[in-house]
Amino acid sequence: MPLLQLGDAGEAVAALQTQLKKLGFYPYTIDGDFGEKTQAAVEAFQQQKQLQVDGKAGHITLGQIEMIVKAAAATPVNIEDITLAQQICIGSDASNVAHHWPIICQSMRRLDLADPLMLLMAMATVYTETGRFCPIDEYKSHYNTSEGGHDFDLYDDRHDLGNQGAPDGALFKGRGYIQLTGRDNYRDIGERLGMGTKLVQQPELANDPIIAADILSMFLKRGETGIRQALTTGNLAKARKKVNGGSHGLQTFTQCFTRGEQLLLA
Q: Is the pLDDT assigned to residue 182 strictly greater than 80?
């Protein structure tokens, strides 16, 4: 096997980049140029596999890469696999992913949303909205609370959310895996789930893991057509907007979704 290093170019380098891309280390265009990005990808692989970290692809590094790529090709990748989910959700508590991801998958399956595309959408959404990968209350911030105002006062009169003044802002703040927000969303999703007005009367139920999973699934089901169209055309910003209503968290969402795609296609 040849030694590939910074400054090299050609088909061998392109093949190396392709393999590194399959393993999730090289999220860039395959150009056959061993530049700094390729070197960094080689170093990241070497570090993860506890090889000598020198950024050069010699026979040991190339052999390890080839062996892992072949093993991955022989093993079907399942996005419902907990270990894979933990790899995608870098930085989230691994025990949280292990506990909550199966609950979410089960709920998504009930609504016929358990294909890789929509499951990855769900995963990236939860990762972006909660960070820790568990149902949470929305944090108080300048986005929802005015300086000197009571908690979530900026939501109180958000008629686009169906809120009817204080204390609706605090009552219907973001909760759960998807950060369900606003009286109208609590009412609509609750009714779609067959809960009647229970979710409006007891909004804290949105943090119960099973109910939170059903809320996430139903929210995605409600916008399924637009979300699928956006994802299949690679418009992650539009897919994110279908859930968040804007671009908040777009970078985190994009990184998680892209990382998942790379691992699934490896």
A: yes
Q: Mark whether 188 and 60 lie in a shared domain.
A: no
What residue has token string 């108080």?
140
Dihedral sign from CA coordinates of 184, 110, 112, 136: positive
Domain count, the chain: 3
Domain span holding position 185: 137-207
Q: Answer yes or no: is pLDDT of 70 > 90.
A: no
Is the pLDDT reported for residue 15 higher than 70?
yes
Average pLDDT for residues 46-71, to the nearest whole number? 89
Residues 205-231 as b/e (b if ≥16 CB within 10 A, e otherwise) read: bbbebebbbbbbbbbbbbebeebbebb
Q: Please report, for the domain that includes residue 49, its CATH number.
A: 1.10.101
Determine, yes or no, domain membership for 196.
yes
Report the distance separating Cα 19 and Cα 82, nearest Å: 24
